[in-house]
Amino acid sequence: MHIAQNILDAVNEWLTPTFDNETQVAIKELMTTSPKELEDSFYKNLEFGTGGMRGVMGVGNNRINKYTLGKNTQGLSNYLHTVFPGQALKVVIAFDCRHNSQSLAKVVADVFSANGIQVYLFSDLRPTPELSFALKYLGCQCGIVLTASHNPPEYNGYKVYWEDGGQIVPPQDGEIIQAIEKLNYNEINFAADEKLIQYIDTEIDEAFVKSSVENASFNTPQEAKDNLNIVFTSLHGTSITAVPATLEKAGYKNVNIVPEQAKPDGNFPTVKSPNPEEPEALTMALALADKLNADIVVGTDPDCDRLGVAVRNNEGKLILLNGNQTMILMTAFLLEQWKKAGKINGKQFVGSTIVSTPMILELATAYGVECKVGLTGFKWIAKMIKDFPELQFIGGGEESFGFMVGDAVRDKDAVAATLLICEVAAQAKAKGSSVYNTLIQYYVDHGFYKEHLISLTKKGKEGLAEINQMMVSLRENPLKEINGQRVVMVEDYKSSIAKNLFTGEEETMNIPKSDVLIYYTEDGSKICARPSGTEPKIKFYISVKTELDNAANFVQTEKVLDEKIKNIITAMQLN
To answer: What is the Cα 236 distance to its own chain's centre?
Structure first.
């Protein structure tokens, strides 16, 4: 197999004394046994995406290891000293249940401390939202969490948070990348100053749980809480350290934890993928819920920022809600609670993303609040809070099973969101209704929106090229018709141009550039194409809508929307 010169140059750099013997031995092994894997390990540098830096662990500049993370941290340290000159710098670091997370977190702490920066390092694994909370609680300028969210076991990652508690956004991310790229690996200072590393645990945990309960509790009577039968699974992840404690403190006693999945384990032994977006991830929780006749099932991903929810339909069968549905339920509930409390005066907003359900806009309008829509990723919703300090943030979500309640945590937060969806369920049951029927009533009141996600995996260098070509083709040969419906509007977030295909008019969109295309058809359907920022995938988000005249026609109307989605998938050759 021919190996390109740029890859050989990178390999040779990693065979110099800057890198330890273990690393060099592993590289030489790849050279003789796995040239294909060697190429994939070195053909590019890992990049920051929508969720920070995420990748497969191993040797090389396209892998997560002590050197790539050390270089990130050295560049970030240099940047912090530039941006906050003369200040006493503080960072906080958390890590999840993945292989090497704890040791990599210590490497990151070592480099920060070697650069004269005070480090607060969690003594054991913690949920990602607790890192965002701790950053503000401790008054740090920056925070890092070592996590790869719900990716497979061979992955790990590095997410950077700023002093407001949100993930970094432009121009900071670009400036940090520049600071990193200026460095050579031999400039990383790994010589820790242990006096600057302070371990943290119980005090932050207690404050975080208290804050979660305060933000996500809404006067649910104790009797209603006692009557709600909950099944919860942490899917071998970090949420076991915070969700049960939060539910208990909020007064929910009837919480049944899936025992086989309660122990944190980076192998995720009982699931194919520890992702609550995947129905099979909740198989064990659903089985336990049927055994116990539970009302609601909640499962969180390994770093506890996403949640999957299942509730009973009118036949008593547990059904999985998608991220758009849970987002609608929680947003509508929050808006109703704020309205009841007389807190809505036109100076509030909810947040969403361009690939999430348009129904959120209908809800916001109905309650007289603004809906701000940003790019994919919760860093953009966190940025909205920072950019509009004159407005109160009520809550926000995205289709990929993330939700944020208030702004104590400025990232998606499955701790507060788990409590919030239990509040929704408890109050609905106390009124003789259910989560399922509550959702149907929202469809009657605001329009029936149905969404579906198609995710195509394309691995490696060839896969990346294939994904890029798909986006090029969609741009150069834009669809004029989808499923017999004419395309009215195409929004290209790479060029920031929205074009009306009927009139030819073009409008500049005031939103950061991103590799996203959205098609709108004349019947109100919306189809979005977007390469993933953190996984080797291209995603197609489909949203269709119709009117629902009454709840009795829900099943029949849903079939019509399902058929429309199926036809769109066929028309776009996505099956």
So the answer is: 18
Closest Cα to residue 143, out of 190, 98, 80, 185? Answer: 80
- Please provide the size of the chain in residues: 575
pLDDT band at 323 (very low <50, low <70, confident <90, very high): very high
**Whole-number average pLDDT of the chain:** 95
Under the banding of pLDDT at 50, 70 and 90, the label for residue 68 is very high
Strand arrangement of the beta sheet that strand 318-320 belongs to? 255-257, 230-233, 296-300, 307-312, 318-320
Neighbours of 134 (CB within 10 A): 27
Residue 518 in contact with residue 354, Cβ under 8 Å? yes
Q: If you search the block for the tokens 């609608």, which residue do you land on? A: 328
Q: Are 70 and 188 in contact (CB under 8 A)?
A: yes
Q: Mapped to the 3 state alphabet, what secondary structure does 230-245 carry?
A: EEEECCCCHHHHCHHH
Catalytic residues: 149
Tokens of 14: 């990693």
Give the DSSP H/E element, type plus range, for residue 78.
helix 66-83
Q: Which helix (H) or strand (E) holds 130?
A: helix 128-137
Using the predicted structure, report yes or no on whether residue 443 has a pLDDT greater than 80. Answer: yes
Contacts 24+ apart (CB under 8 A), 11-19: 11/38, 11/42, 11/60, 13/185, 14/42, 14/59, 14/60, 14/61, 14/67, 18/185, 18/186, 19/67, 19/185
Residues 151, 153, 155: CA angle, nearest 5 degrees: 60
**pLDDT grade for 142, boundaries at 50, 70 and 90:** very high
Q: What percent of the chain has pLDDT over 70?
A: 99
| Residues 499/506, Cβ–Cβ less than 8 Å | yes
pLDDT given for residue 4 in this prediction: 84
Chain centre distance of CA 174 = 20
17's CB contacts (< 8 A; 6+ apart) are none
pLDDT at 151: 87
Split at pLDDT 50, 70, 90, the class of 535 is: confident
Q: What is the spatial distance between Cα 299 and Cα 285, in angstroms, rounded to a whole number?
A: 8
Whether the per-residue pLDDT at 50 is higher than 60: the answer is no
